[in-house]
Amino acid sequence: MTGLQLLVAGWWLLVAGPLSRAQEAPGTAASNPAPKDPSRMEIYGAAMLDTGYNAGQNDPNWFDVVRPTKLAAYENQYGKDGSFFAGVRQSRLGVKGYVPTSLGEIKTVFEFELFGTGADAGQTTFRLRHAYGELGQFGAGQTWSPFMDPDVFPNSLEYWGPNGMVFFRNVQLRWMPLRGNTSVTVAAERPGASGDQGAYSDRVELQNIKARFPMPDLSGNLRQSGQWGHFQVAGIVRRIQWDDMLADKYDLSGKETGWGVNLSTNLKVGKDTIRASVVYGHGIQNYMNDAPVDIGIENNFSDPVRPILGKALPVLGVVAFYDRTWSDKWTSTIGYSLVDIGNSDGQASNAFRRGQYGLVNLLYYPVSNFFLGPEVQWGRRANYKDGWNTDDIRIQFSAKFSFKKSMGG
CB of 205 within 8 A of CB of 168? Predict the structure, then answer.
């Protein structure tokens, strides 16, 4: 039985069970009301259509999003410019549960969408977003990294979002010793990183290097909130190692310490919101929304045993967006984002160096659970040192139908 079938079956038992008991004859046990169950559950989701025209070209596995890292690295890498796209991959379904216990309330969330990534890139298929639970000060499972501020994400139609923001749902064990207007969160997160073999990718010596992560990534944030909005400072530190498994005259093993600092805010201006963040670090690219590898190759020809080294690449990310509420029926968003990479000298000349991202939209809400509208999007890629850069402009139209149902409590 699939996960979706289990979810539907569970929902049917919750709904059909009480209905069938209510139909029993008077005088039976069903006619005596049972004690009210304080537990409650919320089912929510949305069906969403995205359609539009891409004036440029990008990796076809990412046909319905703007990711500067997936734009062409050289002329006509993905064919000719100009293509129509349509999909429902932003559609989503989730369940939240709240169960009182003697130690406090257990909170859980299980949520998935249809946007395939990794081995499923380009497909419309189930993808886990959240599988997470909390009790008191402790939480465990997959959810937003504490290094991230999800409230920086603008009210946009484009799915992937600003390339310069920290955006990562990760498996973690977290501690939240302080709640309220001033909050503190720390976590041990699942480690992971990627490397670029650069100009030496065809060398057999590099095929036997294996990544290893001897400790979890350690992250945390401090957040101050009020009627004016919020400000958050977050940090992360991580250990990245790689082992040379080939017995030859070279020793290409190495290790690097990745680290980063992320400053983010929401500022309320009447009914409007300014969303902004600045992040800088070394070897934290897999925590970014759209950045390339964490480790690049650095030439070290003066050492005959270690002629190349691994380097944690510097990354700078910037986000600045303005969400405007014109009325109860109309909203707009406009903004810009940037990712800038400090490349290492062993990377290929067409390696990704800088990505830029921007959009503007106008959305109409005829009723509370439905909106539609157009959005103009822009992405730009610049390479390391071959002089190549390319722009991608697209127009997207989306319609989203949402629902939410609470039971129990």
Answer: no
In 197-329, beta strands by DSSP E? 209-212, 217-226, 229-244, 254-269, 272-282, 295-299, 308-312, 314-325
293 close to 284: Cβ distance less than 8 angstroms:
no
What is the tens place of the pLDDT at every residue in 95-122?
999 999 999 999 999 999 999 999 999 9
The CATH number corresponding to 39-408 among 2.40.160.10, 1.20.200.10, 1.10.10.60, 1.20.120.450 equals 2.40.160.10
Can you tell me the distance from the alpha carbon of 151 to that of 149, in angstroms, rounded to the nearest whole number? Answer: 5
User: By C-alpha distance, which of 187, 197, 338, 314 is closest to 259?
Assistant: 314
Helices in 116-243 by DSSP H: which ranges?
Answer: none
Low-confidence ranges of the chain (pLDDT < 70): 1-35
Question: What pTM was computed for the model?
Answer: 0.89
Question: Does residue 234 contact residue 262 with C-beta atoms inside 8 Å?
Answer: yes
Rounded CA separation 308/195 (Å): 13
Per-residue model confidence (pLDDT) at position 8: 44
Q: Report which DSSP code applies to 58.
A: B
Confidence (pLDDT) at 94: 98
DSSP 311-341: EE-EEEEEEEEEEEE-SSSEEEEEEEEEEEE
pLDDT of residue 33: 63
Strands in 9-151 per DSSP E: 40-54, 83-87, 92-101, 104-115, 124-135, 138-144
Confidence (pLDDT) at 206: 82
Report residue 230 as tokens.
């919020």
Which tokens hold the place of 123? Answer: 């497909």
DSSP per-residue codes, 154-188: -S-SSSS--TTSB--EEEEEEEEEE-SSEEEEEEE
CB atoms within 10 A of CB 273: 19
What CA–CA distance (Å, rounded) separates 286 from 195?
11
Reported as a single tens digit per residue, the pLDDT across 6-60 is 444 454 444 344 434 444 444 454 456 666 779 999 999 999 999 999 999 999 9
Predicted local confidence at residue 12, as pLDDT: 45
